[in-house]
Request: fold
Amino acid sequence: MRERIGALLDEARAALDGADTPQSLEALRVQYLGKKGPLSALLRGLGQLSAAERPEAGKWINAARVEMESAFAAREAGVKKAARALALAGETLDVTEPREDYPLGLLHPISTILDELVDLFSGMGYEVVEGPEVEYDLYNFELLNQPRHHPARDAQDTFYIEDNIVLRSHTSPVQARTMLSRKPPIRIISAGRCYRADEADATHSPVFHQIEGLYIDKGVSMSDLKGTLEAFARRVYGPEVNVRFRPSFFPFTEPSAEVDLTCPACKGAGGCRVCKGTGWVEVLGCGMVNPKVLELCGIDSAVYSGFAFGMGLERLAMQRFGIPDMRWLFEGDARMLGAGRGGSAQTEGRRGE
Ligand code: PHE
Reply:
């Protein structure tokens, strides 16, 4: 009996070693530990033994069952562990696998320039305010010292919605709105779309973008304007840039100036296409707010003075990114996007046009 049990245990152990799945393990369990298995048969046969042999044989059989069960439990743990390792290996992610190539969304050159200017001027204490694109003649012209039939209106001929409502021809009406609704000190910038009755060509567009600045306080002078615009020029065109003020005329500023900066393409050497050979590019209009405008907008010109400036974002973007034709900025050509990444590579494909 003892030998038979020993042989049975050896046989079961050998079979267990070969079981490597939960299914084969279960089959062996039925085979060795089930009701029809050899240990059950031995138990059933106890009755045929003599009363003296029976207790000892019973002990052996039970001991064998306990041993076999623990062998099964050990094997089961091993099989489970192996199955889990296998599953994990199948789920491994290859983090070095190259991803599918897809195009990145990038900012339009106008947005790039605008973000940069908003960042610069807000750092200097300017607040961003907005104004409507469909504007009353009053704000766009009259309060800016351009009465009806004033010849200066010619330069800013725009689209009329009604007799007294226009598509704003510049961002300057936001100046008038702000002066009427706030008390000095005022330090604001405002940007957005503007409209003029111009034919679209390489340097004109009936829709374009401007950014406007206005600073009003006691004792604001032309040198404050110069310092502010020099900081702007260095930020946008680099620390080497030279700034040139040229006397000019705007009905809403007096004195007025146009500001030229060193050509970003030829660095002032001249003879290049961007600056038409002069070494300078024209960038903005500015001046001291005309006392008449201050008075029209309810600000005492004996106490306060201020400066204002306004510039076209298209021109800045074209100079910065070497875009030769303003229409490219409006055509929705995806090659324009990415200009803000610091190069003109994306426009290369269009250069031959
Ligand atoms: N509004 C002027 C233009 O569109 C620019 C400007 C703004 C000039 C503010 C002076 C002061 O040409």
